[in-house]
Amino acid sequence: MRRLDDLGDEELIAIYEVADRKVPHLRANFVSSLDGAVEIDGQSKALSSDSDSRVFSVIRRLADVVLVGAGTIRDEGYNPLKLSAKARTWRTAAGLAENPTLAIVSSRLELSPVNPVFQSAVRPIVVTHAASPPDRREALAEVAEVLVLGEAAVDLPAVVQEFAGRGLTQVLSEGGPHLLGALTEADLVDELCLALAPLLAGPGAGRITAGAPTTLTKRMKLESTLTASDDYLFFRYLREA
What we know:
With 241 residues, the chain is an alpha/beta fold. It has helices at 9-16, 50-61, 70-76, 85-93, 134-140, 156-165, 177-185; strands at residues 2-3, 25-33, 65-69, 101-105, 125-128, 145-148, 170-173, 191-197, 220-227, 233-239. Strands 1-9-10-8-2-7-3-4-5-6 form a 10-stranded mixed β-sheet, sandwiched between helices. Helix 5 (134-140) links the parallel strand 5 and strand 6.
């Protein structure tokens, strides 16, 4: 098992880079406690660490789009999406846009146009459906591009297809659990990156996935494992061919 602390940035990037960026690929990234909690006191940040932040940053660096549910934007207090100068330099050298695009999935559009997240380096995209409140769509259109995909629910396959049509093939989903559940149900998850925090959170918290109960299963293949000096483990799973 490779140690994160022994890896330089380029080595770490190589571990998480996809084989062909032209091929549409949806990666989900989560952190969990040892006993399966997705958050502590309502936020996943309490499960994070310096090593987790480092891997998180590398995974973000490789994305064309960062896809997030509106609830996660509200609950986690998301900051505007702008990468570090070092990451932007790397992306430019790699022929990528300086920053990925933030895309927010929302059915009810319970987002304030003055939320700091709309000050991201790239104008964000808000993805909703035709039954969402028209007045909220109009208000959010002042600070973001509003995409209407689906009649009474967001059509997630159409969302991924729309991104790919724009050349945004590498999609990173950062949550929350309901979005991961919906992406899994739609069979869109190509990869799961899971950080395991060395903590027991106890009962009460939800899992990294949520939604209607289902017997649906998706087989994944372990691609890589990293350990860190703070006892965090990092797993990368790919869709089984």
